[in-house]
Amino acid sequence: MGCSGSKRTRGDDNVKKIRKPKPWKHSELITRTQLMQMRDEFGDTAPHYGGRTEIDCSMQCLD
Predict the structure, then answer these.
(1) pTM here?
(2) CA–CA gap between residue 12 and residue 2 (Å, rounded)
(3) Sign of CA dihedral 31, 54, 48, 23
C-alpha cells in the first residue's frame, strides 16, 4: 500500500500501525508561571546541547 490507487498484497498484513503519542504531563501540578519558567530554561540550555536557537525563538512566538 502506498498510493491511493494501490491494492493490498499478501505481504501487507505485517505492517506496524502508527499510534499518536500521548501528550506530555508533568508528574505534579504546576502553574502557568512554572511552565513558562521551564520553557525559558529549556530555551537557554538547548543551544548547548545541539538545539537550534531559531526554532526556540519561533516556538516562543506561538505563545
Answers:
(1) 0.46
(2) 11
(3) positive
Domain count of the fold of the chain? 1
DSSP label at 27?
S
Chain mean pLDDT for the chain: 76
Whole domain around residue 49: which residue ranges?
31-63
For 43-57, b/e burial (b = at least 16 CB within 10 A) is: beeeeeeeeeeeebe
Tell me which amino acid residue 16 is: K
In a domain, 58, yes or no: yes
Q: Is residue 4 part of a domain?
A: no
Q: How many CA atoms lie within 13 A of 38 on its CB side?
A: 7
Cell 519558567 belongs to: 37
